[in-house]
Design brief:
Blueprint (H helix, E strand, L loop, with lengths): L8 E5 L7 H14 L3 E6 L8 H5 L5 H10 L10 E3 L19 H8 L4 H4 L2 H27 L4 E5 L4 H12 L3 E7 L6 E5 L7 H10 L6 H15 L28 E4 L19 H12 L6 E4 L14 H13 L3 E3 L7 H7 L2 E4 L4 H7 L3 E4 L12 E2 L17 H25 L7 E5 L2 E4 L5 H10 L14 H11 L3 H11 L18 H7 L8
Amino acid sequence: MLNQQKKMRIGFTTIYSWRPHVEHLFYLSELLREAGHETLFLTCEADLPTCYTHEMRDIRPSWQECLMCRAGNIRSYTKYNVSSIKDYTSLKHKLPKDSHEWVYSSASTLGRFESDEDYEGLEFDHLTKKLHPILEITYSSAKNWILNNNLDAICVFNGRIDATRAIFEAAHSVGIRVLSIERTWFGNGLQIYPDENCLGLSSVNKLMVEWKDKPLSQHQAAKAASYIASRFLKKNTTEWRMYNAQSEFVPWPIENSDYKILLIPNSRNEVWGHPDWSSGWKNQLEAYDAIINHLKLQSEDMILRCHPNWGEKIGKRDGQHIEKYYSDWAKERNILTISSNDKTSTLGLIQQSDAIVIASGSSALEAGALGKQIIATAGSIYQKSGMRTDVCNPEQLNNLYLYKDQPETEQDVQKKAIIRQTLRFCYTMTHRIPQFVDYVNIRTPTKFIYKKGADCNRLIKLLRTGELKADDTKYSANNNAETEFIELIQRNKWLDIYHRSQAMKGTKDTEEYLAIRRRSFYALIDVIRHRIKRGDL
């Protein structure tokens, strides 16, 4: 543990100049600098042979991509203590034996791979080999930067994508604390995970367990319910991506079936290779087949809903091969498939279903809010929340049954319990796990304001102890407030819920804000960027 009184030297690195992560890191560095700690920065200035951005997009030449990234990097916020990767490459360090796995996550997402055959194929192998030189350069540079500057800890954006993973591992190799930084689900606060990358679930699981049995107060329940209501009302405009926005409610397309089970596969490539999101199943389709056999479901009991983003391009890749992978499986079993481009409301289908089967997708939030049974087949942010039915391995099948088969009184108890746990999950995910929630406020997916008065000691303690503490530690002595909102939810009073939460915010903003902005003419970057269609970067 670091000395509690010692002034620290903290490194910050982003590599990729994606919105809004450079700004977030600069904000954290300013908190530390004003508290008397020294901050240093590492960035990329066309120092790598390729990168995630280059491989994802092909809309402009490489030199132009690098120029745009350099213009938006940390130097656009500060010119002090900023180094480039190339400044620290003179001394080479040998990569660990398992380093080839560090690019798996990048390659998986870039190729939008899904099937086992995809991951065993030549294209995946080609991508991993093409990305590997990034590790060799960045790992050595980051390690030299850390050692030469005698850094006590570093904060790195993401920590899973190629260069950011190499920096993360370099910090671990010299035994210093590393925090991974990401934007949060709904935008307020910052996701800061100690000693794990942005997909890590250790801190999430710990806090979910700690808070899942603590009742929410009136104010807390209103906030949690309002996030859920925003999805039902299509007002969730602060999420990075908003799916199914132009959807239409359609009655359940199969009549006279015994059950209404909605299969909602999510993109495996987004979390592939991370042990925290793993499953005892070989893949989602193996899990589906086992569940179908165990519950003795007929083809007419199920609908497969393809994810809307499979019909969209992310960079230069669309998701049609993912859709084909799942729809071919469904066709062989005579299961009705709704395509990714279909305007049918996924939410409408969830509302009419008896249960959903999902791996780790965010549709569990709406399903849980409606009290639907969530049959989950893999690790997820809500695996310790108490809101899902775990079937993450074959052994758990023995305890699986459909709530629909229970007496109505028992079903009602189960529905209310799921809604209650979903409210608590949502609040933990939006106000306990994120840090500085009251001080980092989102306005649009790429625009933030930063209130004065944030307690830097929260960040310092995290750097020194490596233990994530809840941003809000208050809770209620009873379930009364939650029960009130459960009743509103069961009556589908989404607009009432949303307005009640908005009214709690008040109308007059008297807060003071920090000037977190790019310096001099660099401010033009954001003026231009805000006019460009927002993509994944």
